[in-house]
Design goal:
mainly alpha, Receptor-associated Protein, 4 domains, 3-stranded antiparallel beta sheet, two-stranded antiparallel ribbon, 16 helices
């Protein structure tokens, strides 16, 4: 039987490592979870074969075949989650609920995902284990909340909260796009107008000055004429118009590394107007994610890890990593978050009050609602 190496987090947030024997990766995950750990890495050990000299020789193990599906529409996934919650609340068996939802789905990735999940559930897997096999369809946040709902016997409630969370996330995304349309339009229009003026308007004034024999022009006028000549004769217009493309390509290149991603995200937060939008979006996203996970019963250290991975901004992800380490050492949430200086004092104070009253999850959701507006 294959041997699997694992890294996991125990109930107090400490990293543990070890090996288990299992027939598949899924079985290895189940065994690690049965120990009370949350697996973060599972890797099959290389098999060994015996040579003619009797010595064991390492041989790479054939990867276990896993059926996977691609990403699915967030809107359709939200509808599926809401419908599954309703069917579970009505008392229908889980497998029957999945089959019903599979039948009513139109052909596509989500229907395939539901069928595969239903097949695994019928084979004895839990819903969270079955969904975890398809990370492009059901991300870690999704499967962790489902697992928490299963453990607490409140799957219908957790699914409803998950659907609420997904709908709120989609509303926030639409608002972000709406808020960014105007400044992006203004910047684009300004670049276009400047290019037009420098390429066509200023040269006409230059001809007028030359026709009148004017030579002693003011310094600012001479500067404009030189810039205009650069635009028109030296392809300056092409450089200006290609500037946004250059920024885009440079950003993509920098995001290939963690340090580059951190630099890009830090610069984004410093951009006038847009930086405020990015910052409020990041705060709304991580507070709602963390609040939803805590409401579902996910342990705080595990919830912070999941939130960090889905933060969408490396500056906030690193801040949450520091908060996680401090909480593991026995501190509360508010104090280390205040030290990171990535959120406003009001946010820290609200979190502090939430911890004191025992309503941290509700307070985090209130913060998210405030920033959504």
């Amino acid at each position: 039987m294959p041997t699997y190496y694992y890294e996991a987090m125990n109930s107090v947030g400490q990293t543990v490592k070890g090996e288990v024997e299992a027939a598949s990766t899924e079985e290895a995950v189940s065994k690690v979870r049965s120990m009370g750990h949350f697996p973060t890495k599972i890797k099959q050990r290389a098999a060994k074969k015996t040579t003619a000299t009797g010595r064991a020789e390492a041989r790479p193990a054939a990867p276990a075949k896993r059926r996977r599906v691609g990403s699915v529409s967030k809107k359709k996934l939200t509808q599926f989650t809401r419908q599954l919650s309703t069917l579970q609340d009505a008392g229908l068996p889980l497998l029957r609920s999945l089959r019903i939802l599979e039948e009513q789905q139109k052909p596509g990735m989500l229907r395939v995902a539901i069928r595969l999940v239903a097949d695994d559930v019928e084979g004895g897997s839990t819903l969270s284990e079955a969904m975890a096999k398809h990370p492009k369809a059901f991300d870690k946040l999704y499967t962790s909340m489902v697992a928490a709902g299963e453990a607490g016997g409140v799957l219908d409630i957790v699914l409803r909260r998950l659907a609420d969370f997904m709908e709120a996330s989609q509303r926030l995304k639409r608002r972000i796009i709406g808020a960014m349309v105007y400044p992006v339009f203004v910047i684009t229009a300004a670049l276009g107008i400047v290019t037009l003026i420098m390429t066509f308007i200023i040269p006409k004034f230059k001809k007028i000055f030359e026709s009148f024999g004017v030579k002693n022009l003011p310094g600012i006028t001479r500067l404009l004429l030189r810039i205009s000549s650069w635009f028109r004769d030296d392809y300056g217009w092409a450089i200006v118009l290609s500037f946004p493309l250059g920024i885009f390509l440079l950003t993509k290149l920098l995001r290939q590394t963690n340090s580059g991603t951190y630099l890009v995200d830090k610069i984004k937060l410093k951009i006038p107007v847009l930086g405020t939008i990015f910052a409020k979006t990041a705060v709304a996203r991580f507070t709602r994610t963390l609040g939803t996970l805590l409401t579902a019963g996910v342990p705080i250290l595990e919830a912070i890890n999941i939130t960090r991975e889905t933060a969408g901004n490396e500056v906030y992800a690193r801040a949450l990593a520091k908060v996680h380490d401090n909480i593991r050492e026995g501190e509360n949430f508010a104090a280390p978050l205040r030290q990171t200086k990535v959120v406003e004092p009001m946010v820290v104070n609200m979190i502090d009050v939430g911890e004191e009253t025992g309503d941290l999850d509700k307070m985090l959701n209130k913060i998210a609602d405030t920033y959504d507006e």
